[in-house]
Each structure stands twice: as C-alpha cells, then as structure tokens.
Amino acid sequence: MTKLLHVVTNVGHYDDPSHATGLWLSELTHAWQVFDEAGFEQTLVSPGGGPSPLEPRALKFPNYDKTAKAWRADPAKMELLATTKSPEEIDSADFDAIYFTGGHAVMYDFPDSAALQRITRDIYERGGIVSSVCHGYCGLLNTRLSDGSHLIAGKHMTGFAWQEEVLARVDKLVPYNAQERAEQRGALYEKSKLPFVSYTVVDGNLVTGQNPGSAKATARKVVEALVGGASQPRP
User: Is residue 55 part of a domain?
Assistant: First the structure.
C-alpha cells in the first residue's frame, strides 16, 4: 500500500499572541479525501508531535466546506490532530510521499525542523514525492540535499504568493516573505495570473500548490506521480 505523510503545524498564533493561526483545515481535508480515494495509507506528523491547532479563518465561509465540517464532526479524525506523531517516531523508509499542509502557523515551526528536513531529503533522494500546498512550502525553504544544495534550488515551484499575503491583509503579521525566501534559495517560483485561484506546479518529484484552493489539484498531481511515476524534471 502506498503510504503518505502529512505534515501539520503545532503553532497557534502569530508573534502577536492576540492573533490566532494554525492549520488551514481544508488543505488537509481536501488532500486527505483525494489520497483516501486512491487507497493510500495516511499518517499525520508535526514538528513537535501532539496537538495541531486550527486556523480560525479556515473555519468560516467560504473556506469551511463539507470536507472540513465532516472532519471536525468526526471524533476519530479530530483525535488524529490531537495526537500527531513527532518526526522522531517516523521512519522515512516507510513512506512514498510527504505532503506539507499550510496555514500561516507553519511559517514558524516548519522551516527549522532538522528532523523534518531529514525525512524530506530521504524521501526525495530515493525518488519519492515531496509536495506542499500554500504556506507548506515553508517546510522546504531550508531543506538541503546530501550534496549540500537546497532541494528547491533550480526547481519550478509555487506557494502562497506575497501578493496574496497583502490581499489577505496579513503582510504586517507574517514573520517573513516566504515567496522571496524561496527565490533567494534558487527556486524558480511561479504563480497564477490571478490571486487565490487553483495553481499547481510539477517538477520531477516535487509537486506544489499555490493556495488553499489548490489542495485538491495538488493531491491529484501527487497521486498521478505515485501511480504513473514522477514526471521528468522540466527544462
């Protein structure tokens, strides 16, 4: 059975504790549904293990759709978010793919998790799929390959755009410009012509989605890559 590792956050607020954040739930639930329909075995991990708080704005219309509502109404599913595994409990050899979920919270605890970087590198270098959606690409910013190069260097990819941060009115709250940091690490960053529309990029065994609306499409690209083999790197 194909096994996929979801990465979720442990952080519940911005630098200013009065501003709550957390996991953008639909980015998990949309992908989970796609992977479940494909017959994948799925596991949740977080940088510190344990509870993953939810982003309040993701629990309001139009972000709060039927998949997110169904997850919150299911005690077993909510228990999964309350008891996520720590990276130290994960054997990367058990997984065919890793999928980094988003929410602004991940900007704080994803980038500097050495254990998550190790898992990601191991999966990537043996030909598994590394994927992210929205701010999930923050988990790839500092990941280096065995030769010391950044995993995203020279790779076509996407993630939540700075323009979208401004339009979402959180540009003054976020700790850094994720798009800029990806570009500084050599990523060939792409984004949709219009903000907040679904947009995905596949470059070899790296699959990325731009924003919350891209979660389903990103997950489908991961399934395609795992079932049919990862596509060749783009020129």
Answer: yes
- As given in the structure block, the two tokens for residue 151 are 């995993």
Please state, in angstroms and as integers, the Cα–Cα distance from residue 133 to each residue in 19, 89, 93, 217, following that order. Answer: 22, 24, 23, 10
Q: How far is CA 119 from CA 30, 192, 228, 231, in A?
A: 23, 30, 23, 21
To which residue do tokens 């293990």 refer?
A: 49
pLDDT digits (tens, 9 = 90+) for 65-76: 999 999 999 999
Per-residue tokens: 138: 């923050």
Instruction: Please list, in sequence order, all residues whose beta carbon lies within 8 angstroms of the beta carbon of residue 54, skipping any fewer than 6 positions away.
Output: 22, 23, 25, 81
Q: Over the stretch 93-118, which tens digit does the pLDDT of each residue have? A: 999 999 999 999 999 999 999 999 99
In a domain, 235, yes or no: no
Domain CATH for 201:
3.40.50.880
Residue 47 belongs to some domain of the structure = yes
158 falls within a domain: yes
pLDDT at 174: 97
How far is 87 from 135, CA to CA, in rounded Å?
A: 19
The tally of domains found in the chain comes to 1
